[in-house]
Amino acid sequence: MRKERWYSKLYVWVVMLFLYAPIFVLIAYSFNANKSRGKWTGFTLNWYNELFHNELIIQSLINTLIVALFASVIATVLGTAAALGINGMKKRSRALVMNLTYMPIINPEIVTGVSLMLLFVSARAILGEFELGFVTLLLAHISFCTPYVILNVLPKLRQMDRFTYEAALDLGCSPRMAFFKVVIPEIMPGITAGFLMALTYSVDDFIISYFNSGSSFQTLPITIYSMTRKRLSPEINALSTIIFAVILLILLLVNINGSRKERAATKRRVEG
Amino acid sequence: MRSKAASIPYLIWMVLFTVIPLGLVVFFAFTDTSGNFTIANISQVGQYMPVLMRSIWLSLIATVICLVVAYPLAYIMSRRKSYQQRTLLMLVMLPMWMNFLLRTYAWMTLLERNGVINRLLGLIGLGPFEMINTQGAVVLGMVYNYLPFMIIPLYTIMTKIDNSVIEAAQDLGANTGNVFARVIIPLSVPGITTGITMVFVPAVSTFIISRMLGGGSNLLIGDLIDMQFLGAAYNPNLGSAISLVLMVVILICMSVTNQFDSSEGREEMMV
Amino acid sequence: MENQVLISLKNIVVTYDDEQVLNGMNLDIRDKEFVTLLGPSGCGKTTTLRIIGGFVEPTSGEIFFDGKKINDLPPHKRPVNTVFQRYALFPHLNVFDNVAFGLKIQKLPEKEIRTRVLDMLSLVNLKGYEKRRINQLSGGQQQRVAIARALVNHPKVLLLDEPLGALDLKLRKEMQLELKRIQQSLEITFIYVTHDQEEALTMSDRIVVLKDGDIQQIGTPVDIYNEPANAFVADFIGESNIVDGIMKQDCLVQFAGQDFVCVDKGFDPMEQVDVVIRPEDFKIVPAEQGKLTGVVQSVLFKGVHYEMVVEGSGYEWLVHSTLCEEPGAYVGLDLIPDDIHIMRKMEVE
Q1: pLDDT tens digits, residue range A75-111?
Q2: Is B271 close to A121, i.e. CB distance below 8 A?
Q3: Based on CB atoms within 10 Å of each CB, which residue in A26, B4, C115, C172 is the most buried?
Q4: Chain centroid, CA B177 distance in Å
Q5: Could you tell me if C147 and C182 are in contact, meaning their C-beta atoms sit under 8 angstroms apart?
Q6: Contacting subunits of C (3+ beta carbon pairs below 8 A)
């Protein structure tokens, strides 16, 4: 292959600058002593201190994590079971179920959010008065997380050699044991990927939560939203910096781990 | 293993939380507050035509810009060494993992009247310019937020284009332009259509970006829906009607896009 | 070597979506024998194997193991193990854990598992590979793991479904010998499915030739090769010249416009028959000495012999000979009575 031209390199840098400049500006401001964004008046960690003492933010962080954890665990179980069933379906019913499964993914989030809100509001008429809050939020999150689990598990099930299940039976496993000892381990990468995707989507979700959380139960994105409406709140900068650092750390760890494994695998293959 | 029964809880869930809610949207769109059938809501949407048109127009511009910016980048990425590809991909995805509210907020900081950009321009004696609360700011916000959604499917499809195919084209006398026009672009069509869908759908339905960067005068269709459900104008019937129109608009746009893509496996790429 | 009958299939019928795959099969398999189910794809050989393994339920008919009916016994309770076509190894386990899988299910003591697995790995020449992951193994090595994983459980019967199909020719030959060696040293029954007639001839004690869900012939490799029961078997096993003939009387057959003395009896006078001649049974003689004559059309060198096509009086004969004739040469072909095999016409073809 021929060597890359200088303008290709420059182009990559320009796009990266576009992607990161705003974030770096936020990070810089998080250390700015001046409350207004205009001037740089000296270095401070004050905003971080305020952030950690901001009850509302801490509480909404906890809320976010609780909802995300419950939602992604339930979605993983529900979605994995669903994938197993869908995999065994006849072509036509499978196509129908899959099309409906894609709905929450393809539909604009605002429509999903509004439609669930309509459901909960209408349910009041039948179930009696209740406030939107933790339960409705959890139900909404499970609903939009489950399709991601299904979409991750289903390809693994299709790739799976159907004979490995039979081999387990042949070697003395009951169908139940074969399922847990062979099928589950084989589709585990899909289940894990689905779980992680559900978790991140749930943590990150604003729009659907916005319509279904009511006023009593706030998640972090909702709190951030209300902070952005007050024009001056430098804690957001501090919060962004921390979130950025955490994501960077996670991605680095995952990547280093991944490339190390890959390298070890190639090495072994070369030696073997 | 072969038990379809395992999917029953999900099927019930799907009916309760996907099918019925969407049915409710349709139901509300065609009824008045007391539950009687009416098409008044739908016809009322007509008066918001300028907003609908603005939403479509701005998100189309944003989608085109994303495609133009992302295409060369995805190609350059896909021809790098594999460890560089991994690093670049991570760099593209990293901002995506930050909440879009924070990313949009960052642009508020930059575009403000006394924001960073105006300050820098001021140093060389230009400005200050009115950048925030304009349509341009809204488009910029869309491009910034959704650019990774365009880069990733394009990159994914381009890694599948074997170098030997490109070399074969060159061997047969194609210059760089020919290679792109006759080999790379046709082969990357599925990535292009996926990318367009993944940028256009959230862009056309957004209501936060327009509110944060567009001020009050650049309302989009998403803002309208929001106002009918959680705003002062509380009217879920009208809100449902607008949502329904939005879904139809998106459906039409997607089927137009799909005309260009007969290949299978689009769904895999959406994940 | 007449051991007792171990597995017995009685009138097995299998129907998939209205299509009959097996039409009432009867088959006895004896203890410690190497039986091969041989036939073209779609003949029902894999289905037969899967019935014995318990993965397919026969539509009707009975299957006995050691005299006991096992129709309703699920696969994991049957004393047979299978080597699957594409091995079906567990990709999430290493070599040791793959082989130990069945023993761990039986909850044997850790120590016994270890010795048995290591013994088995050395039997299949994979000592030192315990920690390897499956995807780090070559096709041949995966094959050995699959065999070890099945054999370590001391099954009474090992079922092998085209186990060498994915290997290249040289490796296949090696594994054929090795499988035979393993079978003889462990003294267990092997039921082997293949479509490769050469593989069947090399390894088997008995061969069951199948076509369209019916058994065509059961016999030792020598019987099947030398005395094929019908033209299908003759054609499928080795190469053959098959021509129409008429049985004039006992031990006299007419084909290709000539009368030949043969050794077959018991046909109706003037019955239409198939005449089968193996290519290596022709003897090339000077044209005036041969009963059949023709012109050599083509010659291919095949290593041990030359393969020639000789055309004369409307017939094309495939001839194997260690002598080489030039294309275009006019030669005679001679046969001795023993080499002319007479077969009844198959009903419908």
Answers
A1: 999 999 999 999 988 889 999 999 999 888 888 999 9
A2: no
A3: A26
A4: 29
A5: yes
A6: A
Element (H, E) at B257: helix B236-258
Q: B11 and A247 in contact by Cβ < 8 A?
A: no
Q: What is the pLDDT of residues A104-139, one digit of tens each?
A: 888 899 999 999 999 999 998 888 888 889 999 999
Beta-strand pair C283-286/C271-277: unpaired
Provide the pLDDT confidence category of residue B215 given band limits of 50, 70 and 90: confident
A170: nearest CB among C75, C85, C89: C75
SS3 C11: strand
Cα gap A31→A38, rounded to integer Å: 13
Angle CA C196–C198–C199, to nearest 5: 70
Please report residues of C whose CB lies closer than 8 A to that of A175. 74, 76
Q: Which residues, numbered 40 to 69 in chain A, qualify as contacts with chain B under a Cβ-Cβ cut-off of 8 Å?
A: none
Domain C5-231 has CATH 3.40.50.300: yes
**Nearest chain A CA: its distance from C191 CA (Å):** 15
pLDDT digits (tens, 9 = 90+) for A168-200: 999 989 888 999 999 999 999 999 999 999 999
C-alpha C189/C-alpha C3 separation (Å) is: 11
Measured in whole angstroms, the distance separating CA C44 from the mean position of its chain's CA atoms is: 13
Q: What are the helix (H) ranges across chain C?
A: 45-53, 95-105, 110-123, 139-151, 169-186, 197-203, 221-226, 231-236
Whether C12 contacts C6, CB under 8 Å:
no
Residue B206: its chain A contacts at CB < 8 A? 110
CATH 1.10.3720.10 is held by the domain B49-270? yes
CA gap C298, A86 in Å, rounded: 58
Q: Give yes or no for residue A245 having a pLDDT over 50.
A: yes
| B250/A224 Cβ within 8 A | no
Verify whether the Cβ–Cβ distance B230 to A210 is below 8 Å. yes
